[in-house]
Design a protein that fits this description.
The structure is a homodimer.
Chain A lengths: L8 H20 L6 H12 L5 H8 L3 H13 L3 E5 L5 E5 L1 H24 L2 H17 L8
The structure holds a DNA duplex (23 and 23 nucleotides).
DNA sequence: TATTGTTATACTCTATAACTATA
DNA sequence: TATAGTTATAGAGTATAACAATA
């Protein structure tokens, strides 16, 4: 069945993102991680002791939804919550979390490399700038957190 | 907080798609339609009397998930299920569905126009081919329906 | 007064398994 | 034997409201 929607950039964007998420998800099942788990691990590994709120602000995940996500990572022994003061908690990687992060970085880097290789060479360098414009250009229309 | 993931095409793809879906969803609340509802309406309007299964194959929606979606459109008086034989049902637009489709087409066309205008001119023509390559290039990795 | 972490809750999307009836 | 429609169910993701404690 020919798809009359195939010429619409918004539709192609959704289909491409869905396919990408499904494939990355499959590559992470071996690590018992969801895509959002891996994203948080990478962010925590790159940043110094962020709070859950700051992670959520960066990744566009609501505070309330960070709780079960971090509970899961903590239960897996990958992160710990360390008091900053009597109100805030710093999210830090455990040694097991550091080891896991190294594996995750490898999986993600290989995946991103394969992704970009699927794009015909003449379009390749345009993808990230175009996606960035769509992402950040949607600001006014996006609901605030 | 600087986002160390911002340079990854896969991450940018997800963020762009999420922002796009949220914005299109907002534009469709006035029509009391979800994005997937609008997508099905457009597809049915372009194709002659498809079955639910064929719609699902085209849009990558499982048969089982088509049922409540079509129930909703039928309850809203926008589509009808007409017997093809004693096993299959053709999905057709009602007169109200045709009217609604005209409005939806206008909303979607305006949105797609704005989307593409947000992309800097030098990258604009590369977006759709790049997304198509990512979408269709994921085939082998995608789970079959 | 604003922010952090949290609980509870609900809605959407998506996925699987299984059943009936029919091609 | 394969396909169409359906039911039931479960897992994710995401959203809001509200609360206590603290900055």
């Amino acid at each position: 069945m020919t798809d009359p929607l195939a010429g619409l950039p918004g539709y192609a964007l959704r289909r491409a993102a869905n396919a990408m998420m499904a494939e990355l998800g499959e590559r992470l099942v071996g690590e018992s991680l969801r895509v959002s788990d891996a994203t948080v691990l990478i962010l925590v590994g790159a940043k110094g002791r962020p709070t859950a709120s700051r992670i959520g602000q960066t990744l566009d995940i609501r505070r309330a939804n960070m709780v079960p996500l971090l509970d899961r990572l903590e239960a897996a022994g990958l992160i710990a919550r360390e008091p900053i003061d009597r109100k805030s908690l710093a999210i830090v990687l455990t040694p097991a979390g550091e080891t896991k992060l190294r594996r995750v970085r490898g999986i993600v880097a290989a995946f991103e490399r394969e992704l970009i290789e699927r794009v015909p060479a003449e379009h390749r360098d345009h993808l990230l700038p175009a996606l960035d414009a769509l992402w950040r250009g949607a600001e006014g229309a996006q609901s605030a957190q």
